[in-house]
Design goal:
- This protein is of the alpha/beta class.
- Helix content is 37%, strand content 20%.
- Helix 1 (31-44) packs parallel to helix 2 (64-73).
- The protein is globular, with a radius of gyration of 13 Å.
């Protein structure tokens, strides 16, 4: 698994032991964006269920249908949502509390702590 996938409103890059997704700056994520990400992940990683690091990148918002698609169809073992702003935190909390994905999901203000959580055995299932 190597190389990036772009051409969408995000860049998906397989890494050693996880998948990194960086959204374009300041986007509002639609259901189509969510389906594009789910499809792209299936193309680069059809059988594995790896953890995912997501850089929100000043994301404005997500449609309810996008959040539902992510919660119900995203094939990941854990999800770390990263962004320094209060809006990033609200997006992550709303997604986790309202849409209740089947995989562990946490918010982090910076990527280093997020990767530590994602890549440490047993950490992705622990509470903050």
């Amino acid at each position: 698994m190597n190389g990036s996938m772009s051409g969408y409103r995000f860049v998906l890059t397989p890494q050693d032991g996880y998948v990194r997704v960086e959204w374009n700056e300041g986007v509002t994520v639609t259901e189509q964006d969510a389906l594009d990400l789910i499809r792209a992940l299936e193309e680069v990683n059809p059988r594995l269920c790896e953890p995912m690091l997501v850089i929100l990148n000043a994301m404005v918002s997500l449609d309810a249908s996008a959040l539902s698609a992510f919660a119900g169809r995203l094939n990941v073992s854990a999800l770390a949502l990263v962004g320094p702003s209060a809006v990033d935190r609200v997006i992550a909390t709303f997604f986790n509390d309202v849409h209740r994905p089947s995989y562990p999901t946490r918010y982090f203000p910076e990527p280093h702590a997020a990767l530590d959580w994602l890549l440490t055995p047993g950490r992705s299932t622990s509470e903050p």
